[in-house]
Amino acid sequence: MHAKALWRNGAVAVLLAALVGLWLNEPTANANGEASGRRMLRTELYLEAVELSQWEDFLAREVTPRFPDGLSWLDLHGQWRGPSGEPEKLPSRMLILIHADNPYTRQALTEIGADFKQRFGTAVLQVSSPVRARDPDWTPQRLDNPQLLR
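^ thats the sequence. predicted structure below, dont judge the formating
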């Protein structure tokens, strides 16, 4: 009897976990019943500004294959506390990615940071925030990829 109750409780817990997982990845609706977006992450990677040809090569070889559904990047004027303890100016770039939070994307972001540091000698600052994102091009077929799928 005890084993049967444990099995039943375990089955209920698994079912609830699956339902919560489905709910977390479903688009939500606003007051008009329109989808207001999927739960995603917006990740900003702050990188040292390297020569444009090197940057474009890095994007093509390291970033785009891992995040083929798109990205944005900006040139920035950065500042940080250097080894001397004083503020130092650093020409920078910010790479912006909208993606699902899953093991694939976490690993891809780690690899991008490690590849940049190995190639150019500077660390990458990563900032991620939860967002709701919607794109009319996110068809069911396109959502079945690691960048967008939870």
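The first strand starts at residue 28 and ends at 29.
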